[in-house]
Amino acid sequence: MSVFKKKDKSDDKKKKHDEVDNKKIETPQGTFQPASQSTSNTNLNSLASSVNNGASVGSTNGSTPNNSNGSTPTYNHNNSAEELEKQKKEEDEKRKKSELEAAAAVVAKKKEDEEKQRKEQVELERKRRDEEIRRTNAAAANAANKELNEQVEISSLEQMGKLDPSSTIHDMFSFFPNEVYNSYEKLQYFSRDLNTAVSHPEIVFVGPRSSGKSSLIEAFIGRALNIVGGGNIVGVGGSNANGCSKRVLYLQFTNNIDFEVPKVTIKKDNTIKEFDHDIIVSIEQLNENLAKRNQLTNDYIEEPIYVSIESRTTLNLTLIDSPGLLFDQSQAESNKIESIVSSLLRPSHRLIIAVESCSQDWKSMSMGQYLKKIDPELSRSTFVFTKFHHTVRGFSSTRDINKYLSGTVPDIKGFFVTLPNHQVRASYSEANRFQEKIYQAHKRDMHALEQLQYDKRYERTIGVAPLRRYILNIVWKSYQDTIPRILKHLRSKRQTAEATLNELQKQSSSLDSTKLRSIASNYTVTFLQITEKLLSGTSEGNPSANGQTLDEEKSQQGDCGEWVDAYKEAIYIDPEEWNIPYWSSKLYGGQQLERLMAEFKAVCDNSKISEVKMDDIATASGINKLNNIPNYAWAASDLTSLISRDTFVPLIEQLCERAMYIMKRLTDIADKVIDSRRKSRCIGSSPFGGNGLNNINSGGNNGININDRLSNTDMDSLDQYPFFTHHVKNLYYDFVHRAAKGCKEKCMDEFYSSRTIYWELTEHPDSSLPSIRNDHHETKTAVCQLATKLFDSIRQRITKNVLLKLYNFFLVPMQTDLWNEIQAQITCLSNEQLEQLFEVQATREQLKQEEKKQQQILEKYSQIDEQFLKAASLFCRPLSNPTPSA
């Protein structure tokens, strides 16, 4: 291979060109471009090949060519680079040109598409305008047809003649005479005054969509409310396909004498924030407000719309308009509507009005099968078949019309009605003219039936008026059935007032000294006998309710409940370990006192002598006696006397306090026993809880018979004399205090003086006491041992004697002296004292006021009774025209 000694400047340009065309490859024969490169580089490849060939020739000769001047020959690389650069520029220009041409083609294509799209939009706009014009023309034609149909319908109705002002056709607000509504208002007032709830009837209108449910409600009420379920809503711009039937509508009619003109209130709507408050509207504005609520409802919901209509000429009644059933629509929507309607029909107290359009084929009627799922016997269902006039026009013979009228489902209550269409009702929304159109529609049906010579037996099932009469007759009878119940409650109230008045008069007449003394003696004897019985042992006091466990007893006493030592430190007690009987059982009376005594003994038995200090020993030993020997026996006696008093005096005081608490509890238990016996007498059981304990021996009180002593009337009137019963209880409390105080004083006699203890100790001298004063340890040990021995002996003696004295000086007097002392104090009361204790003067004044009050109540009930009977007589007048037969 030949080697160039110098390079031309064009080599740098060639390198740059090679970097641009990075697909070139170096070989021993030269540089070439792969076949994958563009064909435009073919000349460059051939040129490079010729240069390489020239180099190969030079290398073949094995010598390095030189020029004539002796310098290294240089090949024409500059020309080759220029040609390559020129060719590259040409190719770039071609490429740019092709790119510009492609961009121009894209722009042209885009302009062409935009033009095409513009033309399509223009065509669509033209078609839309044509369609709008077509719809406008169709709507105009439809409106013209509707107007023509409306004119035809009105003309057809007008041919039936005008409504006679003296006609008996009424709306719901004038169906009964004013006297009936006035008497009904009085009956409602009496029921409220007697706190007697009277439920009002509820009627549900149910049927397929567009069957005329809402229109039938309007006809039943007699006012054009325009609460229809489809079509254009009058007074509201636009159309609402479902109208009010998207939601359940409750029309709640309430009797209110304050409103001559019906007051309409739309209750707050929790589902729409805009209507979260009550709105009072006129009947004419009702439809507009309902339509607004339905426009904001996108789907069927269970939350109903409540409308309250108050008037002095109406009975309490609720009409419920349900969404129209969809038997042939989408399954999801149909199931949702059926769920809402079924929840309305399920309550058994509601009357069901099934509304369905008439059809000449009874088998195509769907409401009968639907209602049997909810009301199998159809006992509370009434069927109303609308659009009767269109069906009648399809018959041409008497035989066919009578066969059709007799072909209703057996054993059902059915009516046939024709209602003016929505346009007619909207045009004649005034009450009188609306009633006239209903009358004319009914007369037109009757005229068509007369021409067919139909069977007159079916006359009472045709028209809105018989249906209204039938429904209001049911409502009227439902209230008529409540009259005996209200009257019974009234008579019961009157009898109670009479009995109360007689009782007050009897109490007033019993406020004399002899009667009061008898009541006092009877109560005192009963109270003392029950107290004694509770101490002796009985379950009549209901231990589960009135007894106390050991923990409950302590917690009820508060600070006095827990045992404490001389330093006011609580003494820990383990009832189970210390064998305290019945510590977890509910006790009262004598058994509770026995548990307290066992607890006291356990606390004393577990009490230990406190620490004896050498200072106390040295001080207590006193001056030197004979032979200059300290008297350590005296020191032990003195220390023991002091320690035993500090240890057991607080325990004895606590024992007496808790014993008084146990005894005082018996007064409340005795009151409950007396009350229980009084209630037992009221239900005819034994006066003393059914235990057969009529004769109670009171420990030496000669077996007093309770039935002889105790007057049931006196015991029943004890609640009238609380001051006297408190006086007896205070006497009892005073006795308990005195007994506890005397017992405590007797117990304090058990604490001997130091001299007495020393004298007893010297009767049995102990030579173990030290005689040398210098050995303090020996002295302290000996004195402590002697003091401990003396303390144990004193503890046993005090524990035993205190329990004996508690029994002898506290419990025994409660069973013996208590009776005599309290009975003696009650018996010795003078007449003046009795009257003061029984508060005779205040009681007489109170009884007079109560008698006056009861007399007024009795007179009021007597007047109500008279007025109620008069109102009931007016309300219960017979209604004309019987109900339709099946």
Describe this structure in words.
The radius of gyration is 58 Å and the shape is flat. The protein has helices at about 10-20, 40-60, 75-160, 180-195, 215-220, 285-295, 330-345, 365-370, 390, 400-405, 420-425, 430-450, 465-510, 515-535, 545, 550-555, 590-605, 615-620, 630-680, 705-710, 710-715, 720-750, 755-760, 775-815, 815-825, 830-835, 840-875; strands at about 25, 30, 200-205, 250-255, 265, 280, 305-310, 315-320, 350-355, 380-385, 415. By secondary structure, it is an alpha/beta fold.
Largest sheet, spatial ordering of strands: 6-5-7-4-8-3-9-10-11
Task: Give the biggest beta sheet.
Answer: 9 strands, mixed
Oligomeric state of this protein: single chain
Distance between the termini: 128 Å
Report the principal-axis shape.
Answer: flat
| Low-confidence spans | 1-10, 12-17, 19-75, 229-244, 685-711, 878-886
Estimate the mean pLDDT confidence: 77
Number of helices: 27
Helix content estimate = 55-70%
The total count of strands amounts to: 11
Return the structural class.
alpha/beta
Rg is 58 Å
β-strand amount: 5-15%
Summarize the topology:
Blueprint: H1 10-20, E1 25-27, E2 30-32, H2 42-60, H3 77-158, H4 178-193, E3 202-206, H5 213-221, E4 249-255, E5 263-266, E6 279-281, H6 283-295, E7 305-311, E8 317-321, H7 331-345, E9 351-357, H8 367-372, E10 381-386, H9 388-392, H10 398-405, E11 413-416, H11 422-427, H12 431-451, H13 464-509, H14 513-536, H15 543-546, H16 550-557, H17 589-605, H18 614-620, H19 632-682, H20 706-709, H21 712-716, H22 722-748, H23 754-762, H24 776-815, H25 817-827, H26 831-837, H27 840-875
Parallel strand pairs: 3-8, 3-9, 4-7, 9-10, 10-11
Antiparallel strand pairs: 1-2, 4-8, 5-6, 5-7
Helix pairs in contact: 1-3, 2-3, 4-27, 5-13, 13-27, 14-19, 14-25, 17-19, 17-24, 18-19, 19-22, 19-23, 19-24, 22-24, 22-25
